[in-house]
Specification:
Layout (H helix, E strand, L loop, with lengths): L1 E2 L5 E8 L2 E7 L8 H13 L3 E5 L3 H9 L2 E7 L10 E6 L3
Parallel strand pairs: 3-4
Antiparallel strand pairs: 1-2, 2-3, 4-6, 5-6
């Protein structure tokens, strides 16, 4: 979890088994380096080198690409079986 200068939550990340499962930044805190810091911590401390991104989220895809992730595959459905295509990204080396 990251907190801003006032001590309020700016964002959080969660990883499991080498996969980033969630990364959320409060909209008012975006563009200030919180996402980069949380992602770098997840990669360094938790070896989170994989992440799935909704294909309809170009902002997230661009962020992960800037951070060194590359598309390694695609699924037509999300993890719950819904009709939401996912892109599977990976960062090497990890």
């Amino acid at each position: 979890m990251a907190r801003n200068e006032e001590g309020e939550v700016a964002g959080f990340a969660g990883a499991m088994d080498g996969r980033l499962e969630m990364l959320f930044i409060v909209p008012a805190c975006r563009g200030r380096g919180w996402g980069r810091a949380l992602l770098e911590h997840a990669v360094d401390a938790l070896s989170a080198c994989k992440v799935d991104v909704n294909e309809d989220n170009p902002e997230a895809l661009a962020f992960y690409r800037r951070m060194g992730f590359e598309v390694r595959g695609r699924s037509a459905r999300d993890g719950a079986g819904g009709p939401f295509p996912l892109l599977h990204l990976e960062r090497r080396p990890c």
